[in-house]
C-alpha cells in the first residue's frame, strides 16, 4: 500500500504547480508539471509491473468442485419454432 501513498503524495505535490500554470500562466510551473507527470508515468508503470508479477506468481485457484462451465452462446438459444 506504500506505492499508493507515494502516488497520492506525488499528485498532491503537483497541485500548486498546476494552479500556477493554468491560472497564472507561469511557464516554469508548466515545466515542473511536465516533470511531475513523467515521474507519475514511471511510477504507474512500476506499479503495473509489480501487480502483474504478483498476479502471475500467485498460485492458481483450484476450480470449485461441481462448478459448471458457461454454455456457449449458440447452445443457449432456443431453436426456432417449426412452421406448419
TrEMBL record:
Biased composition regions of type Low complexity, renumbered to the chain: 58-78
Span list, region Disordered = 52-84
* Any single Pfam family the record assigns to this protein: Hc1
What the entry lists under InterPro entries is as follows: Hc1
Per the record, the domain of life is Bacteria
Q: What is known about what this protein does?
A: Might have a role analogous to that of eukaryotic histone proteins.
- Family membership noted in the UniProt record: Belongs to the histone H1/H5 family. HCT subfamily.
**Name recorded for this polypeptide:** Histone H1
State the species of origin.
Hymenobacter terrestris
The organism's lineage is: Bacteria, Pseudomonadati, Bacteroidota, Cytophagia, Cytophagales
Amino acid at each position: 500500500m506504500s506505492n499508493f501513498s507515494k502516488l497520492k503524495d506525488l499528485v498532491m505535490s503537483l497541485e500548486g504547480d498546476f494552479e500556477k500554470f493554468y491560472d497564472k500562466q507561469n511557464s516554469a510551473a508548466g515545466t515542473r508539471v511536465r516533470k511531475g507527470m513523467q515521474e507519475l508515468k514511471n511510477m504507474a508503470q512500476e506499479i503495473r509491473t509489480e501487480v502483474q508479477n504478483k498476479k502471475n506468481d500467485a498460485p492458481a485457484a483450484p476450480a470449485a468442485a461441481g462448478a459448471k462451465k458457461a454454455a456457449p452462446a449458440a447452445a443457449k438459444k432456443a431453436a426456432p419454432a417449426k412452421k406448419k
